[in-house]
Amino acid sequence: MRYTLVITGRPGVGKSTLFNKIVEALRSSGLAVAGFVTFEERDSTGLRVGFKILDLKTRSWAWLARRDSPSPVRVGSYGVFVEEANKVVEMALNKDAVVNSDVICVDEVGPMELKLPSFKPLLISALKLGKPTILVVHYRLSDPDILRLIDKSERVTLTLENRDELNRVLPGVVLEKIRGKRP
Ligand SMILES: Nc1ncnc2c1ncn2[C@@H]1O[C@H](COP(=O)(O)OP(=O)(O)OP(=O)(O)O)[C@@H](O)[C@H]1O
């Protein structure tokens, strides 16, 4: 069976940091990666103003959500930029992008991303390709269709206690598993 890793854990524990390290390790070894990463933006006072979404392949990005967004589509105190962010998802996970990649990498499968109309269908199609996959999954994800597709995945729950060790060893372990050198 293809290797799928699900990284989960409490908000702010370091999931994106670990995900980026794994993506970096995959790329450094010559593997082509398709997918996207979402990351927070803070203002000069340190206040979190919102999140951006970045296509890993083309480096195209858009705001995913901001506190001051007028969007009626809200997740907590953030308004989601549905149209702009959806375009990045379509670029990152369209059929060509995923078929021509070695590994599918998505940070994250969470409530904001699920407000983007193309996200769930494109993610499900990508998962069904049977390629190695790295996913950051929101700890409260409840979507039954996605959960069913990832229920046999290897799962890592990141904590403040284990994150240093996992950042050190997991990128190398993932690479070996994807290359089939480790069971
Ligand atoms: N191993 C680590 N050691 C020290 N600081 C870390 C470590 N991992 C992450 N951080 C810091 O913790 C903060 C949150 O990290 P990150 O954005 O990766 O978390 P996250 O779990 O993806 O957050 P979110 O739930 O908001 O998506 C960042 O400032 C990051 O630099």
Automatic annotation (TrEMBL):
EC number: 3.6.1.15
Family: Belongs to the THEP1 NTPase family.
Pfam family, one: NTPase_1
Gene source species: Thermogladius calderae (strain DSM 22663 / VKM B-2946 / 1633)
Gene3D superfamilies referenced in this protein's UniProt entry, alphabetically: P-loop containing nucleotide triphosphate hydrolases (3.40.50.300)
Function: Has nucleotide phosphatase activity towards ATP, GTP, CTP, TTP and UTP. May hydrolyze nucleoside diphosphates with lower efficiency.
Any one GO molecular function term: ATP binding
Domain of life: Archaea
Location of the AAA+ ATPase domain: 1-166
Keyword Membrane: no
SMART domains documented for this protein: AAA (SM00382)
Residues the entry annotates as binding ATP: 9-16, 103-110
Keyword match Flavoprotein: no
Reaction(s) the record says it catalyses: a ribonucleoside 5'-triphosphate + H2O = a ribonucleoside 5'-diphosphate + phosphate + H(+)
Keyword line: ATP-binding, Hydrolase, Kinase, Nucleotide-binding, Transferase
Protein name as it appears in the record: Nucleoside-triphosphatase TCELL_0057
InterPro entries attached to this UniProt entry: AAA+_ATPase (IPR003593), Nuc-triphosphatase_THEP1 (IPR004948), P-loop_NTPase (IPR027417)
